[in-house]
Amino acid sequence: MKGTSPFVFGVLIVLGLIVFPFYWMLVTATTPPDQLMIETPTLVPSFTRLGVFVEVFSAVPIASWLTNSFIVAAGTTVLCLILSVLPAYALSRFRFRGKAMLALGLFVTQMLPEAMLLVPLYAVFRSLELLDTLTGLIIANAAFGAPIVTWILKGAFDAIPQEVEEAARIDGCSRFDIVMGVALPLVAPTLAATAVIAFFHGWNEYLFAQTFINAADLRPASVGIAGLVGEYAVPIHLVMATGIIYTLPSIVFYLIAQRYVVSGLTAGSVKG
Amino acid sequence: MQRPMSKRRGAALEGSPWTPYVFIFPLVAYLFAILAGPLLQEFWISFTDTSLMRPDAGQFIGLSNYRFIISDPNFHQVLIVTALYTAGSVVFGIGLGLGTALLMNHDFRGRSVARALVTIPWAAPSVAVALIFSWMFNAQYGIFTILQKSLGLASGAENWLDSTTFALPAVLIATVWQIFPFSSVVILAALQGVPSEVKEAAIIDRADRLNVFKTVTWPTIAPTVALISLFTTIWSLRRFDIIWILTGGGPLGATNTLVTELYREGFIYRDLGTAAAIGMIGLLIASVVTLLYYGASRRAEMRARGAA
Amino acid sequence: MTGMVQSNRSFGRGWRSGAAFKAALFAGVAMASVAAHSSVAAAQDKTTIEFAASVLADPSRGPIYQKWIDGFNEAHDDIEVKAVGIPFSSFANTVLTQLGGGQGPDVMRLDLDVFMPAASAGLLMDLDDTIADGEYDFIGPDQYMKLDGTRYGVVFSMTPYVLLYNADLAKGVPETFEELIEDAKAARTDSVYGYAFRTTMNQAAGFWQDLCNFVYGFGGEWADAEGNLTINSPEVVAGVAAYKEMYDAGVIPVGATSSEYRQMFWEGKVAYMIDNGGVAGLLANKAPDLPLEAVPSPFPHPEQGMVLAALAVNANSKNKDAATEFVKWVLSPEAQQALLTIPGEVYAGTKVARPEGDTETAKTFEKVMEVYTSQADYGTPQLVPGYADETPQMQQIILEEVVRVLKSGDDPQEAMDRAQSQIERRVLRR
């Protein structure tokens, strides 16, 4: 059934709803500022004003914000994967005492509001001298990201037939080598999917960054941009331009990895 | 679809019995240090009068914080708002996600582009989402207000985010827009597990679409939908950024959920003891929801096994 | 139970070689941690102290303050002051979490509502030995820098509130509140709003400042000299009723944030606005050609709120000597003069002459500043007197009740009665 009209119609509506806020950000960013606060809005972006995306780099320190966000997001991703691969494999392949507790514990982490842990975590970070460092943010973010990554990777390992690993085991490889050399490459799409999830987590995180980071040159974009809402007189078109620049990298990253995300999430999370 | 039911787990037991512990140790130690330790400390703080200004000088005051919260009429509103917000996120987030997944599961021209586009709000940071939605809801120049005016729906003088009636729906609109793509990706993935032969057979049998959905599609994806609903629920119970930036929990507590209330008690009122107690109550609620879910899914599983 | 949905085609794709993958993984960690650490490394031979202020986070005014701080850094070889801008909306929570945790910036510009509780909690350094009272000619509000006779800060800047108006849009210069309402209504057109203030809880801090102006202007105060709450006193209720009258006059952009309506003001879409000197400076900065004028706020009483910012040193600072060195520099006549050249700074901590404007715009703007100076004595802290620690919670309850008056049309008297009893029950329970 190729392209029957009701479906096309439905798809277009959904796409419209999805894309509209992004579109409206673009329209707002590129409309001349004196045309924004009037009752008859401009409805199409004016492509002659794309210079606003250059202008914004001198109006707010977004280059430094994005760099910090990128370091935090990349670090969170790497740390989440390092922490999660072996436990995920253990949960999938081994039977051991405490396994149910571990699974439960991983799940409970998803219930914890970050705001609740802010103060005790602040004390922990103080004693570890992690305050006002991006490393500290990476460590805090990974604690929330790693459990979900483990959970999804475990599902992917479950899907690998045992036999695939047998040959390697007969060759006398250690478990660690089997995980790294045989099992992990087989779950590469899921690994990519979890990398995307962890990356988003680090890229978006706001509350810890707001509390743990003092130095302006270490501030990530989430905090910088949230500070633009409300009190300060940054013109709205520049705020929107900042928002677009902040959103774009994660969308591009997502679109590149999109194929893997879909197949990876499928393998990982979809099991009864 | 049959799950490979070989004894692969049993077969894995050779080798050192310590291997699994070595494998899980770093993660477990890490989570203890960063989450469990602070959580235990929060538990203790909830029984003290600790203030943000003197976090080390809290005195034990028993159940006083809990007693105060439970008797506070404002807290009852918090519970109701939390329930509405969570229910709204789940119903609309999953509903739209399911609908979108079903749409995208059809074969049409440009499907891969559509599939990619439809999931991008998931990639958008909450802070950016809050930014654009607060501008769209702006009472004077927001596109939402202007649209309402031109449709003659309202005088348009009211900002939805500033309305006791519409603030929660407005926050939900922004939330659902951001979260439904995730459930649609996962459900779409589950839909790939619907055996196409059965579907085709059903179509040849001229079974109507609704029937195909009920007898073939739904049973296959139901566990996925249930699981993603559970996650949406517990994530909604702790979602903070988007609500805080859009409304700060207001007006008049209309969007004040457990987490925004926790933040307000702890960081605006500087009363960490009460904030911790609110957090513990939130955890309790999340646990109850999870237990209910496990109970329900086990019953469903048993029914399914009985039927087979 | 659904089965595994992963299709076979994903097997064997991706990183085939485990070794290569491991290498990539560890390279990634190494890079991330190097990157994370390299940016915090600082110069070794200097003491670096952090100076935190919300104005430094303002993208338009922050750089001007940075230049002023550079004046210190250029004059000192051994100390480097690093500016830390924390957004106004999260400043109090962030800084108090840090101070409570024994950390935080070395020197801070603290608004009075953060300064007072921080001082009483012992989180700020005692400055009695550093700053001798007789040595400086302090301005009047310096009295608020002491707690039980001990000095915990010096005034960094102070500004009262006055009525600003756009002379092109204004239909008169109001002298009473009734005239303000009438003039605001007269100025209202399809695209111009007569007046603007905050009415939403996601801007609670600013909403409170705006409310204080109305309440003080009608002779109200939140508590009397004995520390009895007077939230439901006739004067406070009159202020709340006036707030409601303005809200209902059809002249304000309802629900607009201050950043939105200030932009509207400099774009010539708002006629009148009561605001502090910092905002006047901002408007002058954004729109030098705006015909900005000012008169004292047209309320029955001359009292208005004031933004009083303290400069204080963290009690747990590891660089107290360097920090106090900076405080002393701030009080030096040159630094005080330089501070006052920043548009919108009305008063610094000591009495120094305001700089002469050299351009036409600067001269016009100085006239506005003079109105602020004339009202300085009427500036009243935006606190519940005697309850500095509890003000945030009291503020929240009062604002919620005011929202009820604005939105649900509750009677101001009943609402403030409720606020008073709620505060007694919820806040003073312990």
Explain this structure to me?
The complex is a heterotrimer of chains A (272), B (308) and C (430). Chain A has 272 residues and is mainly alpha-helical. Chain A is 74% helix and 0% strand. Chain A has a single domain, classed as MetI-like fold, CATH 1.10.3720. Chain A is built from twelve helices and no strands. Chain A is globular and about 75 Å long. Chain A starts with a helix and ends with a helix. Chain B is mostly helical. Chain B has helices at residues 8-11, 19-45, 64-71, 73-104, 111-118, 126-136, 143-150, 167-191, 196-204, 209-238, 241-247, 258-268, 272-307. In chain B, helix 3 crosses helix 13 (272-307), helix 8 packs across helix 10 and helix 9 crosses helix 10 (209-238). The longest helix of chain B has 36 residues, at 272-307. Chain B is globular and about 75 Å long. By secondary structure, chain C is an alpha/beta fold. Chain C has 14 helices and eleven strands. Chain C has helices at 18-38, 62-75, 88-100, 112-120, 177-187, 204-217, 234-248, 258-266, 277-286, 320-331, 333-340, 360-375, 391-408, 412-427, and strands at 47-53, 79-85, 107-111, 146-147, 150-151, 154-166, 193-195, 270-276, 292-295, 304-313, 379-381. Chain C starts with 17 loop residues before the first helix and ends with a helix. The relative contact order of chain C is 0.15. The chains are: A mainly alpha (272), B mainly alpha (308), C alpha/beta (430). Chains A and B meet through helix 1, helix 3, helix 4, helix 5 and helix 6 of A and helix 1, helix 2, helix 4, helix 5 and helix 6 of B.
The total of beta strands of chain B comes to: 0
What oligomeric state do the depicted chains represent?
A: heterotrimer
Helix content of chain C: 40-55%
Biggest sheet overview of chain C: 9 strands, mixed
Radius of gyration of chain C: 25 Å
**What is the number of E strands of chain C?**
11
Q: Largest inter-chain interface?
A: A-B, 97 and 107 residues
Ends distance of chain C: 54 Å
Radius of gyration of chain B: 24 Å
The domain count of chain C comes to 2
Termini distance of chain B? 13 Å
> Helix- and strand-based class of chain B?
mainly alpha
CATH topology of the domain at 66-109 and 180-307 in chain B: MetI-like fold
Shape of chain B: globular
DSSP helical segment count of chain B: 13
CATH class (first level) name of the domain at 66-109 and 180-307 in chain B: Mainly Alpha
